[in-house]
Each structure stands twice: as C-alpha cells, then as structure tokens.
Amino acid sequence: MKYEYYNIMDLVNKYPECIYYIVVGKRGNGKTFSTLRKIIDDYFEKNLPSFYIRRTEEQLKTTRGIDKIFRPHYDYIREKSGGKYDSVVFYRGCFYLSKYDENKDKYVRSSKLFCFTAGVNTGENRKGADVGKVANIVLDEFMTFTGLPILDEFEKFTNLLATIIRNHEPPKIFLLGNPLERMGNVYTENFGIDVPKIKQGTITQYKYDGGATAVYEFCSDTNIPSVANSKVFSVGINSENITRGKWRVPKAPKLTNKIERDCNEIFDFYITDYDLNYCHAFILMLPNGRPLLKIAKTDDKEKAIKNLHFTTVTTTEKNGFNTLSIFPKLENVVKSAIREKSVYYSDDFTFEFFSNWIRSLYQLKR
C-alpha cells in the first residue's frame, strides 16, 4: 500500500517527550508541509509563534520563494480562523496572517506575527529582545547537497537556539532533510547518529547525558509508516543546559609529541574554504606504514595559494585560484586516514574546518 503524504504528527504523538525530531525523506513527501501545518495549529490553539530556519540568510529571501511556503495552507488558515484570515504575508523576515481587503485592494496583515525566520549562518548575530516562548523551531533542509558547508555550523545553530529559547520551556525542534548525504553531516555527527547504519523506513531513538532526547526517522520512499527500532541508543555526549540549546561537543583529537616524533613526513598540501581560511595538511607515516593526517591552521596565505592542491569548484570560481591536479595516490592516502580515523588537528578550529571541507569533496576540481 502506498501512503500519499508523510505526517510529522505521527512521530510527535509517538514520542511526545522528545525535544529533537530529525526527519530525512525524499523531496515532496510531506515533511515540511505537515510541520508548517503544526506551526499553524500551535498558533491558533496555543497562541504561540514558531521559528522557521534555513542554513543561510540567502534562502530566506522572497526571490527564493520563501514568501510562498504557506500558500498550500490558505484554506486551512481560513478554516482555523473562522474566516478572519485567508492568507499569509512575509514582511521584514517574519510571517503574518492576513486577509484580502477588497476595498483597499490589498492584503491587510495582522498586527501580530505568527512565525519568525532566521539563517544559521547569521544566527550568532541575532540579538535583541526576548521573543518569548515559542512552540516550534524548524530547521528545513539541514541535509542537502546544495551550498557549501558553513564554518562552525553546528555551533552557530546551537547559539541560535540559545538566543531563541533562553530560559523558556523547550519547544519542539525539527530538523528536516533530504537523504542525499548517506554519510551524514555536521548535525547528525553532533547528535551521535551513525547515518550509514540506519535502514530506510525506521525510527531510531537517542538519549544523551543530561536528559536530552532525539528521534531520527529515515522515511521510506512510499511513505509507509516507519518501524521503530526497539533499541534506544545512549550517546556519551553531554547536553548541557539543553533548554537553552547548548551542547558540549567532543574536542578535536590532537597528535601527541611522541607519536609525531616517530612519524616521517611524506607530503604536505594546503586547503581553503569559501571564506578564505587556510589550513596546512601534513601526511605522516608511522613506522608500521600506517598513514596519519595532521591539519594545522596557517596565516601564510601567499604560500598557501602557491601550493594549493585542494579547493572546491565554487571557491575556485569565486576567487580565481588555479587548482593543482591531485595525485590519485595522495587522494587514496587522505581517504584512508579519514576512514581509519587517523586525522589529528592543531585546535578545534581546524577540526571544524577540515570536517566541513571533507563534506564538500564531491565538488573537488581535479
């Protein structure tokens, strides 16, 4: 039997105690539609606004169609409001209920907004008055192939959550994505979710030190109700002050001086990102022939540009770099070190930098 649309409320009702609901499914299956419907319901039934978040501020512009996301719900809004409202207006980054006024020949918006918006990339700059308690926070398309990774993205996301939630009761937090990155991304990694091992059509529950909970659902392509995994995974990540959106993320692994002394350096190269940050990578070889990768930050941009071996297509087009050819053997050594978890970093910045760069490998220009 084929089910036409996915309904987020099935997951919420099944796991009402959860804070985070992470849903991955094919585009157009109904995950965003049903979550927006929940935003509408909670506004009319609880008198609470919500937040709709995208990874970048650019995705929240009317030129990208953001002002139209509630259009499929106009009849429902008319029904819920008893005819008081029949549409939605997007004004100065927020959604307002509205009604068409024939005499004025325009849509007249409510004086009270029902949904805020924010971009993860600019979330750390979002300051101002407390918006009060919110019912839902929705990060749409958190897992996607479009766009470059954002440096410190998960930290920016949690900072944004902290700004929104403050000391209020935690809302329901939804992360919606498309199953394009089967290796996961910065969000699933920080939630301790081993994406490649999760079967399609299943729901997996996670519990964290400190009491935070999350569920991850990988929807079937036919939207048949997912089967719950009987095992609840306990993840050794300390979720500190979860109601304020703060996570204590594991620190970057560092190479000890003893191990580094035992290694021979066989090659080094430089990498860069969209924001023109540079890192210096060293391939080291242990006496037993096992390769290690050490990543260090560098401020010598002139030398980095001259010896740049890796960069993404987008970065190359923007900054006019001439990317050197990458040797197949070198690429295999890099991949081997990553696969064997033999990558070490000079600090947490390089850890985040390199993790983001690896996720953009599919765009590598050779």
What can you tell me about this protein's structure?
The structure is a single chain. By secondary structure, this protein is an alpha/beta fold. The protein has helices at residues 8-14, 31-46, 74-80, 153-165, 186-190, 257-262, 301-306, 313-319, 328-339, 348-359, and strands at residues 20-24, 50-54, 87-91, 94-101, 106-119, 136-140, 172-177, 202-209, 213-218, 227-238, 264-272, 278-285, 291-297, 308-310, 343-345. The two termini are 46 Å apart. Mean pLDDT is 82; it is low at 311-325 and 362-366.
What gross morphology would you assign?
elongated
Give the distance, in angstroms, between the N- and C-terminal Cα atoms. Answer: 46 Å
Unreliable residue runs: 311-325, 362-366
Derived structural class: alpha/beta
Q: How large, in whole angstroms, is the Cα Rg?
A: 23 Å
User: What profile does the largest beta sheet have?
Assistant: 10 strands, mixed
Helix % is 10-25%
The total beta strand count reads 15
| Number of distinct helices | 10
**Mean pLDDT across all residues, rounded?**
82
Order of helices and strands: HEHEHEEEEHEHEEEHEEEHEHHEH
